[in-house]
Write a structure and sequence with these properties.
With 97 residues, the chain is an alpha+beta fold. It contains one helix and five strands; from the N terminus they run αβββββ. It is elongated, with a radius of gyration of 28 Å.
Length: 97
């Protein structure tokens, strides 16, 4: 009788540790802060539709002043992959234009 009780207690403690480990891994994951970002992509082109490579593209968040700068690739494409959500002003500069 004593051995059966000891076995049940050990089994209960083992299950308790497993449950605690599962809760630690999955239960607290929802408590982490969530960060929302957006992405912005486009193509820099002139008035005739010709693409402009290596143009400097800048976005500035109008509310916070947060700023990011990228350059267009050989096909005139640019991408801002992780922008905090906000209202942005976009500007493009290229020497000679």
């Amino acid at each position: 009788m004593r051995n059966e009780l000891d076995r049940r207690i050990r089994l209960g403690l083992g299950v308790g540790w497993i449950l605690a480990a599962v809760l630690a891994v999955f239960g607290f994951s929802g408590a982490q802060a969530q960060v929302t970002t957006a992405s912005l992509t486009g193509v820099v082109a002139d008035t005739t539709g010709g693409v402009i490579p290596n143009a400097t593209v800048t976005v500035v968040d109008q509310g916070t002043g947060y700023k990011q700068v990228v350059h267009s690739d050989g096909a005139g494409r640019y991408r801002f992959p992780y922008l905090p959500v906000g209202t942005y002003q976009l500007s493009v500069t290229m020497s000679g234009f």
